[in-house]
Amino acid sequence: MNTQILEEIGLTKTEIKIYLALLKLGQSTTTNIVRKAEIHASKVYEFLDKLIQKGLVSYVIKSNKKYFTASDPSIIKEFLHEKVSEINEQEKEIDMILPRLAEIRREAEETIHSEIYEGLRGVKSVYEKILSTLKKGETQYIIGAPRIANELVEGYLLEWHRRRIKKGIRCKYIYDSNARDYGKVREKMQFTQVRYLPKGNVSPMWIEIFRDYVAISHIKGRNAVLFLIHDREIAKGYLDYFGLIWNVSRE
Predict the structure, then answer these.
(1) pLDDT, tens digit, for every residue of 65-93?
(2) Cα–Cα distance list, 118 to 188, 217, 219, 243 (Å)
(3) φ and ψ at 207, to 5 degrees?
(4) In a domain, 55, yes or no
(5) Does residue 16 contact residue 47 with C-beta atoms inside 8 Å?
(6) Domain range spanning residue 238?
């Protein structure tokens, strides 16, 4: 007989074995139950108590000895009805807390995760994060790559690009108009596309987009500060902005 349905309504395999054994034995002591159900003797009372609580087994005492009997199988349907009633009550309780759960989710969605990196080491830290975050075939996007940034960390950036290309990460760069010499170097790199802002568009700041991150970066003298935002919706907005500028930039 397939007893899977009994497990699905909440009985364990051992409880099922004991109940079926008692159906066959009629009124019986634990000795015969253990033998018939083929279970370990040390656990028989534990499972009999559970079956008694579920209304599937009863007992009498004769000469100071317990004799157990399986309840009529129709009680299983009543047991199922109790489970349904319990589920209905749980559903009501869930309905009561769902609004608060939804509110908690909205609060989490509205939270913007951000970090600040300072100095040229901060620039390098963000670039290492880009390399560890992106996978093969994914793309890093830059708006307004400035000349001064390349001048300060070009040696590091060339080595970074070597590792980036080895990993198969793509780049789409929009360089400042006065940084064409650096852009030309990137144009020769694998997995790299470069365009340039119209002549005269020069700024010490730039924007990088990678996956769900946006880095807004500024350089002043030999110092730098980067605001790293981690938010999918914001990153998508900046990526759309990148697309607009890419379309009007020059090759």
Answers:
(1) 899 999 888 888 887 788 888 888 989 99
(2) 31, 10, 10, 28
(3) -125, 135
(4) yes
(5) no
(6) 113-248
- Name the β-bridge partners of 213: 210, 230
What residues pair up with 116 in beta bridges, in sequence order? Answer: 227
Domain count for the chain: 2
Distance CA 9, CA 25 (A): 24
Helix (H) / strand (E) containing 216:
strand 213-220
* Angstrom distance (rounded) from CA 185 to CA 97: 58
Q: Is residue 102 part of a domain?
A: no
Is residue 201 within 8 A of residue 176, CB to CB? The reply is yes
CA distance 32 to 24: 11
Residue 69's H or E segment, with its range, is: strand 65-70
Q: Are residues 146 and 196 in the same domain?
A: yes
Percent of the chain predicted with pLDDT > 90 = 51
Contact present, 161 and 189 (Cβ < 8 Å): yes
Note the pLDDT of residue 202. Answer: 78
236-246 per-position pLDDT tens digit: 999 999 999 99
